Structures are given as C-alpha cells and as structure tokens.
Amino acid sequence: MKALHLILAPALWAATVLPGWAEKIPLSEISAYLNSLTTAQGEFTQINADGSISSGMLYIKRPGRVRFEYAAPDDSLVMAGGGQVAIFDAKSNQPPEQYPLKRTPLNLILERKVDLARAAMVVGHSSSGPDTTVIAQDPEHPEYGTIALIFSNDPVQLKEWIITGEDGSQTTVLLGEMTYGVDLSPRLFSIVQEAQDRGLSD
Predict the structure, then answer these.
(1) How far does Cα 139 stand from its chain's mean position?
(2) Model pTM?
(3) Within-domain flag for 1
(4) DSSP 41-102
(5) Is the pLDDT of residue 14 over 90?
(6) What is the CATH number of the domain that holds 127?
(7) Three-class SS of residue 171?
(8) Count of Cβ atoms closer than 10 Å to residue 159 Cβ
(9) Per-residue pLDDT reduced to its tens digit, 93-133
(10) What angle do CA 116, 61, 187 make, to 5 degrees?
C-alpha cells in the first residue's frame, strides 16, 4: 500500500499543481466552440483502418458540408452536402457512391446546433495532459458508430478525430494548420455540380 501511495503521489501532485493538466474542457464550452465554427480549410492526414496513410486538403462549411480532397496517388474525393455523403473514385468513371450524412458520426459536429449535453450523446469525456477527448454518438442510432474528438485545451481547438464505424473499424483524421472564417464557394460542396464537372451526370 505504501508503494502504491508513492507511485500515485507524483501524479496527484501534478494534477493539483500543474495548471490545466487534468482539467477537461466542459461540454458546454466545446459545444459553443463547435457552434462558432462556420468555415475552415487546411491540410489533413488520415490514418485508415488498414494502417495506410492518406493526406490532402479539407474544407468545412457548417452546417452539413465538408470536402476531403485526397492528394496523389489517391486523388479521390469525399464530400458532404445536401444531407448526402458522396465518394468520388478518381479511378472510376461511375457516379459517386452516396449515403445519408446522418449515417456517419461526422454529422454530429456538422449539425446546425451542436449540443453535447443531449442525453446519451456523449459516452466518454476525459483529459490527458493538455488535451480533452470527447466520444460522441447519435443518441437515437448508436449503431452508426462513434466519433472521438480531441481538443487542445489552451486555446480550445479541434485537432483530431477518430471515427469508429458500424463494423468497428477506425479512421483517424489529424488536422494540420487550419484557417478559419474563410470564404468558401457553395460549388465545393455540391455533389451534383461535382458530378457534372467530372462528366458523371446523366
């Protein structure tokens, strides 16, 4: 017992002495941060379920719109707009695969009004060093999977997310330096326009 006390003591000291070391950001503050985020763009790195790594440019326009432009050799495109997610395969001349945005946990941070205090929405809320992690799910459809959001504490800023899908596979997105409040054309998030530009429309 004495040895255990000696092991725990430094950690307890650090938690009480080091400013913000063990304090997690309140859910209300995180919700306010996400609701204040209107547009953003920047580089991202994606760690896929099979361990492969992709990168590219990310564009966000809340509510409900996001665009992932993957760099070579992938050159594919994933975008959300009009309530749908579309996957454009650069190596195919077929129309994009589509499914409802609501079926992906990413929708939770793209909603018009984010409220992490909703019952059964947050299933994890913890702090590790200078970061706070929130794990959220759709309270009405937990089978859609979860999204783990990692925020820096000072200043509060989203830096990473991990999506766990319906099948248990995980995809991690690491955000590079982001520019906020930028003017983004609606064309960036138009699935119909993108299909027309690629000659994939009927």
Answers:
(1) 17
(2) 0.85
(3) no
(4) EEEEEEE-TTS-EEEEEEEEETTTEEEEEEPTTT--EEEEETTEEEEE-TT--SPPEEEEGG
(5) no
(6) 2.50.20.10
(7) strand
(8) 14
(9) 889 999 999 999 999 999 999 999 998 999 999 999 899 99
(10) 150
